[in-house]
Write a structure and sequence with these properties.
It is a single chain. By secondary structure, the chain is an all-alpha fold. It contains 2 helices and no strands. The chain is rod-shaped and about 135 Å long.
């Protein structure tokens, strides 16, 4: 028999078919493990990202609150640099009046 006989091709072909099946099975197994790992990592990171987004939203709210308070305090400081405003506060809180000025009190003020 020569190398081109039908019998040899049959045995050689069945051996190569078994090897191809084995390689295909290993390839599918490797890909399944990879995609399983990728899916697990994706969902784990999605949960972490959701937590971090929630923390960021809370910190942004806090930042806005602090900024508003800081702006209010800057406004108060700028008003305290005005002599007329300081006079108004002295009259209101400490009942301090300039010489010759008499306070006018009403019954609504409770004094």
């Amino acid at each position: 028999m020569n190398r081109f006989s039908a019998e040899e091709k049959n045995t050689n072909q069945s051996a190569s078919a078994a090897g191809a099946k084995r390689r295909k099975f290993i390839w599918i197994l490797v890909m399944a493990v990879f995609f399983g790992w990728a899916g697990f990592t994706f969902f784990a990171q999605s949960a972490v990202i959701a937590d971090k987004s929630e923390q960021l939203a809370r910190k942004k709210e806090n930042s806005e609150s602090v900024t508003a308070t800081m702006n209010q305090l800057k406004y108060e400081v700028s008003r305290l640099n005005d002599d007329e405003y300081i006079g108004q506060l002295a009259r209101k809180w400490y009942n301090m009046y300039p010489a010759g000025e008499s306070p006018i009190r009403t019954e609504q003020s409770g004094q």
